[in-house]
UniProtKB/TrEMBL annotation:
Domain Galactokinase N-terminal residues, every copy: 9-58
PROSITE patterns, per database record: GHMP_KINASES_ATP
One Gene Ontology MF term: ATP binding
Protein name: Galactokinase
Example of a GO cellular component annotation carried by this entry: cytosol
SUPFAM superfamilies, A to Z: GHMP Kinase, C-terminal domain, Ribosomal protein S5 domain 2-like
Top-rank taxon, per record: Bacteria
Species in which this protein is naturally found: Candidatus Aphodomorpha intestinavium
DNA damage as UniProt keyword: no
UniProt keyword list: ATP-binding, Kinase, Nucleotide-binding, Transferase
InterPro entries registered for this protein in UniProt: Galactokinase, GalKase_N, GHMP_kinase_C_sf, GHMP_kinase_N_dom, GHMP_knse_ATP-bd_CS, Mevalonate/galactokinase, Ribosomal_Su5_D2-typ_SF, Ribsml_uS5_D2-typ_fold_subgr
Residues annotated as domain GHMP kinase N-terminal: 96-181
Family from the record: Belongs to the GHMP kinase family. GalK subfamily.
Length: 398
């Protein structure tokens, strides 16, 4: 139905009887490795079935891209003017211009006409902007004759988000969307991540993973997000490194007495989180591969506790805003009320934090009841099982 609706919108906006491709880029969920990617750390993440979708055809006007996006005014952009434009930060135009700037320096891009829609909710923590940026890069290169490789589309999308859109992200969001599947990613080498596709499944562990949209939005949290890599870099530089991923965890522990007073306490707490979380990622991947549910739950719990206590990305600066903390508490209470043992579930902040989505690792037999409980609390369709999508950015109809 979405495809037919989008084909109709494309025909209405750009004219019927045109050859068009259908391209799709998925959202993502982070499973372990909360705020580690921007420090050259490791992440376990997966593409999900929610996606951004485009019906696209080469433009009738070379050097021009035109978008008809659901819920937004039509957009036309010259691909001959790719420097950041004043007033575009936080917009689809910024994502398109930034992706085009990166990709044009590495190969052919072409103008296009496209109708877009998305069921990746904006501001909910599934990386809607990353999926959109990956999709736009796919449109730019597919219409030039060949879609760029997923890794290149991910790098272009990160460039667009960081330098044009104004979102200081690492590369996890974009890489998960572009490559697809369940991925173990290591970002130690800038611009050359090591990405391993895992043949593992939560169902083999007897677990379901559910995402609950708590109603708060990430949209106004850019400064809170930017403070996390800034604090982590302060700690890294005190250790003689540019990122914590390049620093020695043992050296950090040994230096802690001397760092107190020289480095802000929150920066030290966030560095503690990084080193602990970075070690949890390969352990979680191994536990999933072994089907070890108890170990998966223990690691997910430890990750969530570390995000709350050390990383501190649950409670924003406004003392009146504690919606995410409340959602975490309500999720745990709902599972206990259904008889779940304390070591049989985990409820954690998901993705960037401060607002948006929580992630719950739940025994499969309790998943439907838990979902009903959360929807009573947060509204219809607020909670859903996360389904891993094997494919990343792809042409559904070439």
């Amino acid at each position: 139905a979405r495809h037919l609706m989008l084909l109709d919108r494309f025909a209405a906006r750009f004219g019927p009887a045109r050859e068009a491709a259908i391209l799709s880029a998925p959202g993502r969920m982070e499973l372990c490795g909360n705020h580690t990617d921007h420090q050259g750390g490791r992440v376990l993440a997966a593409a999900v079935t929610a996606d951004c979708l485009a019906v696209v055809s080469p433009s009738g006007a070379p050097g021009r891209a035109a978008l008809a996006s659901e819920g937004y005014a039509p957009l036309t952009l010259s691909l001959e003017q790719l420097a950041p434009a004043a007033g575009e930060r936080g917009t689809t135009a910024a994502l398109l211009r930034g992706a085009a700037h990166c990709l044009a320096a590495r190969g052919a891009i072409a103008g296009f006409d496209a109708a877009l829609c998305s069921d990746v909710p904006a501001g909910a923590g599934l990386s809607s902007s990353a999926a959109c940026a990956v999709l736009l890069g796919a449109c730019l290169t597919a219409c030039a004759g060949r879609m760029a490789a997923p890794e290149m589309l991910a790098l272009a999308a990160q460039h667009a988000e960081n330098e044009y859109f104004g979102k200081p992200s690492g590369l996890m969001d974009q890489m998960a969307s572009a490559v697809g599947g369940l991925l173990l990613m290591d970002f130690r080498e800038p611009g050359a991540p090591r990405v391993t596709r895992l043949d593992a499944d939560f169902a083999r562990c007897g677990l379901a993973v559910l995402l609950t949209d708590t109603g708060g939005s990430h949209a106004d949290m850019t400064q809170a997000y930017a403070a996390i890599p800034r604090d982590m870099r302060l700690a890294a530089r005190a250790l003689g490194s540019e990122t914590l991923g390049a620093a020695d965890p043992a050296a950090f522990e040994a230096a802690l007495p001397g760092l107190r007073g020289r480095v802000p306490a929150l920066a030290l707490l966030r560095a503690m989180h990084f080193f602990d979380e970075n070690a949890r990622v390969p352990a979680m991947a191994a536990a999933l591969a072994a089907g070890d549910a108890a170990r998966v739950i223990a690691l997910a719990r430890a990750s969530g506790r570390s995000s709350f206590e050390l990383l501190q990305n649950v409670c924003p600066a406004d003392p009146e805003e504690r919606g995410l903390a409340l959602a975490l508490a309500l999720g745990e209470r709902a599972l206990r009320a259904r008889g779940a043992a304390e070591d049989a579930f985990a409820v954690r902040v998901h993705g960037g934090g401060f607002a948006g989505t929580i992630q719950s690792f739940v025994p499969r037999e309790l998943a439907n009841g838990f979902r009903a409980d959360m929807e009573r609390l947060f509204g219809p369709d607020s909670c859903a099982p996360a389904v891993i999508r094997p494919a990343g950015v792809t042409a559904l109809r070439p």
